[in-house]
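[agent] plan:
  1. take the single chain provided in the ticket
  2. run structure prediction with default settings
  3. attach structure tokens to the ticket
  4. add a short note for the reviewer (M.T.)
[agent] executing step 1
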Amino acid sequence: MRLRTVELDGRAIACVALADGRLARVDKVMPGAPTALMALLEADGLRALDTAVTAGVADDACVPSDAPILAPWTRPRKILGIGLNYGAHAGDLGEQAPRTTPASFIKGDHTVVGPGEPIVVPQRIGKVTSEAELGLVIGKPCYQVNVEDAMSYVAGVVAVLDQTAESVLLENPRYLTRVKNYPGFFAFGPDLITLDEVLTHGPLDDLRVATIHNGAVHRKDTVAGMTFSPAELLSFHSQVMPFYPGDILSTGTPGAVGIEPGDIVSCELGDGLATLTNPVS
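[agent] step 2 finished; step 3 output follows
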């Protein structure tokens, strides 16, 4: 399944994509369901929703095709980012990719913007980069899980654009939290794509992640090119902290690109699986 949040009458409404491309309100497909996508994840409602969609959806459940698209949700309990998880990107920063344990950082939910919303480059901080990433969305409480079971806790994936104040980072690599937490430094969406849907396109290891800058591919790689796999990342960090439904684990980028006001940046997952695009201002 693909799930998306749109604005209707000034409210954020969770919708599910139908086979014909239309979007239907989750609370009308499955009466009594939450209207917010985050709440649907917290209620462990994806399986029941899939059953309801399969049973058939009435036309009056569908929303206008021009309904504005919002961030899937704006208040995850945590956003965990991974640094230098592809060797080529580590080289961009004059670093070596970690080999024994992954490098990570936390981002606040004030950084969240949705598809099409501007990524604002703060003044007087020097170079800012944008990085396409594969985001894992946690579907159920997850704590101290092993690698073999880790992906069973993942509801699906999202396309991510993670931003970095690179000039500040190069002053001191310990500034990682500082350089990752300006407002607008985490775009994601437009869709939450359930893991079973992702796997119909092929093995997760073969999924391509590409950073697109003004319409041109800046850098791309596949999940297999990660130093630490998605399952390893989730298992490792779950030994330290619990994860909750709606949390996002952003798995690192194959390459960061410098951005300036007027640019357009995108994250592409696979060949047509997902595209997230944001202007820079």
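[agent] step 4 note for reviewer: The longest strand covers residues 128-138.
[agent] ticket updated
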